[in-house]
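User: We ran a pulldown and think these components assemble together. Before we commit to crystallization trials, I'd like a predicted model of the whole complex to look at. Sequences follow.
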Amino acid sequence: MTPRITGAVAGRVLAQLRRDHRTVGMLLAVPSLLLGLLWWMFDGSDSSAATFDRFGPPLLVVFPFIVMFLVTSVTTLRERASGTLERLLAMPMGKADLLLGYAIAFGAVGLAQSGLAVGLTVGLLDMDVRGPVWALMLVSVLNAVLGTALGLFVSAFAETEFQAVQFMPALVLPQLLLCGLFVPRDTLPDVLGAVSDVLPLSYAVDAMQQVQLSATWTADLTVDLAVIAGSALLALLFGAATLRRRTA
Amino acid sequence: MTNNSSAVYVRHLRVVRGGRVVLPDLTCSVAAGQVTGLLGPSGGGKSTLIRAIVGVQRVCSGTVEVLGRPAGAAELRRRVGYVTQAPSVYGDLSVSENLRFFARVLGVSPGAAAGAIEHVDLTDHAGSLVGRLSSGQRSRVSLAVALLGSPDLLVLDEPTVGLDPVLRRDLWGLFHRLAAGGQTLLVSSHVMDEADRCDRLLLLRNGELLAEGTPQALRERTQAADVESAFLAIVDGARQEAMS
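Assistant: Here's a predicted model for the assembly, 492 residues in total across the polymer chains.
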């Protein structure tokens, strides 16, 4: 791995994004708009504050996760299809340089995205969070990186952008259903509970709930963050395995 | 051709792609410091041979030696420049952004990026988005990337397709200037009238090497007026041999 090359990849991905105003606008605004919509939905009900507090923090990690997964899988697929990937792999470029470059660039976007979303929900919409705000940001950014890593990985199994987009409902929605947002995980049927135990989004949602309910750092939070970071690293390693210098 | 003057040796190369034998058993070499044309009809295995030389093609058997190392060796990635048939550059970046990015990957100076753009005569378009350029201009951007860092071996897959005659002549002029500077070039083309612009030729058809040598030697051997007729004479000769 060479920092110069990793930096070059990250800079290039950001330069491409900068050209694409519409995508940047959507990346930054959509999660905040959705959270605003959520707040508004419950505005009329008696327990509005409590309901928003229940759904707000988990969605703070779910939205960046979905958005990053989509953006990365399509971008990487384009790189594979256009021949630039083959060219880069014929150059002195490490696979880790490429993957980390992508992860850094989209991680930076994730940071801006969650900064806005956290600022909106905690600052303007009075979401009740007992833990430190930076911990919310940390979980949210880690999750954006996880989405990026998974997107990189699945792009190897898609031949067209249509297929890449289909991986979102296939891989992300089951995690969303089982992550504890709709039904607390300990009340799920045994089999589904076991499945949700191995899905990374479950830990992200749990981490957000930890930050929300506890003013101090908890051991559970450490475990959650380790699982999310470990999953992201694992997805990046699997992603690296799909980058082949020699192809048939 | 003596062996110690070759930049590339291919020995008994066999490649199967998608269940089809593309190169059954190919042996050939590319002379150092010259412009070698890899000619033949589309689908004859030119791109597959090029991919094997660059080291991105999975091969069944045989050896490919490039600049004294096995093809695809890590230390060759800096010494071999490769242009794929489709321009592999980023359409959503400008010409100079593309060149500066690849220059950083290769670790060569940003000045080299400007020089490469000048080589392919795109200085006037340096700030334009590659996606907005014509297809001929896009393929020249892709060529400029391969020129970065002055690689010892340049492997170009159909770099002149779709270019107008003036640009084609200019590019062949560039290829010969690079060869005069000591670089080795392997240039594929399915257009036979480009053959006379090469120092040496490899004629490839159905994955088999029909002939190799200078354009002049090929014409004399077949008593043909141009390389296209020579190519046809060799194909016909091979057919008659097969039938008799």
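Chain B touches chain A at residues 17-18, 54-58, 72, 74, 77-78, 80, 82, 84, 86-93, 97, 101-102, 104-107, 129, 145 (CB under 8 Å). That may be worth checking against your pulldown data before setting up trials.

User: Thanks, that helps.
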